[in-house]
Amino acid sequence: MRLDKFLTEMGLGTRSEVKGLIKKGRIRVNGAQPAGPEMKIDPDRDRVEADGKQVEYAAWEYYMLNKPAGWICAARDSRDPVVTDLITDRKRKDLFPAGRLDKDTEGLLLLTNDGWLAHSLLSPKRHVDKVYFARVRGVATEREAELFRLGLDIHDEKPALPAELKILKADRESGISETEVTVREGRYHQVKRMFQAVGMEVLYLKRLSMGPLSLDPGLEPGAYRPLTKEEQEALSRLASPR
Ligand code: URA
User: Fold this and answer.
1) What is the residue range of 191's domain?
2) How far is CA 176 from the centre of its chain?
3) Are 223 and 181 in the same domain?
4) pLDDT tens across 67-117, in order?
5) Into how many domains does the chain fold?
6) Distance between CA atoms of 67 and 83, rounded to whole angstroms?
7) Which of 105, 110, 208 to mutate to test the pocket of ligand 1 (most atoms within 8 A of CB)?
């Protein structure tokens, strides 16, 4: 791998910025001044230092984030803060959110630079289960659960696939219900549009799980941690072979 590519991928700057670092003598490879930005290195064997500090190599990174409301699921945005900025000690600069949650939705989000795994997880053909906690305006009953089960018309070309609506609480006095919804797709505003289709409005939405990955209850909104080895393996089992 080229030295300048390695440094750029590890987040030390743009290609021209890292070339500047190399030129100024701030980068060392195995203790010596590199020949130039095009020098080939083996990231697993060679020791690269920037200003005397080792630049550790990570080919793939995987983080579980409890997305807070108010943050956008994108790698960058001109107006709003983006979720990748919450991962402050990442090694890679090419992390992106695997799938989207609305700006006002909280909960489980996977951030990675592993495009293959993200694609497998999100592919519409895969039908990976996603479970959401939803507080809604309306008194949810068995009738709504049955409509969710049958597959709702949410004004797309095709109706939504059958989904599960578990009613945790339905308060007639306040007219508010608390539910757990399991969907097997990831359409735009899917859960909100499904409730809309039965005349209800989502007031609060939080993703609890996605396939084999469940939100760590120890993570407050805005907090994150790397995936454990077991979680990574469970996701890899779900993905097609590379
Ligand atoms: N469904 C929605 O409506 N919004 C989300 O953020 C996720 C699923």
Assistant:
1) 130-210
2) 29
3) no
4) 999 999 988 888 889 999 999 988 888 899 999 999 999 999 999 999 999
5) 3
6) 7
7) 105
